[in-house]
Amino acid sequence: MTSTPKDQAGSDQTKLNPGDQAEPGTPGAGENVCPECKGSGRIGVTPCPICGGTGTIIEGIGGA
């Protein structure tokens, strides 16, 4: 039997990008435009390294 590391993305897990602070659907987190590529998903001709080419990141939303 082969096991995979817990932090390795499997087919049933969402891949987190470097700019993500939480998994999608996490309470207190929401989708926002990537600050690096401004939502385009690209830096020049390459995919944005922060959002992974999606143009969005998942981050904590404000509260007092």
Automatic annotation (TrEMBL):
Question: Which Gene3D superfamilies does the record associate with it?
Answer: 6.20.20.10
The protein, known as: Molecular chaperone DnaJ
Highest taxon of source: Bacteria
According to the UniProt record, where is the region Disordered?
1-36
SUPFAM superfamilies, A to Z:
DnaJ/Hsp40 cysteine-rich domain (SSF57938)
Q: Where is the composition biased (Polar residues)?
A: 1-16
Which InterPro entries does its entry note?
HSP_DnaJ_Cys-rich_dom_sf (IPR036410)
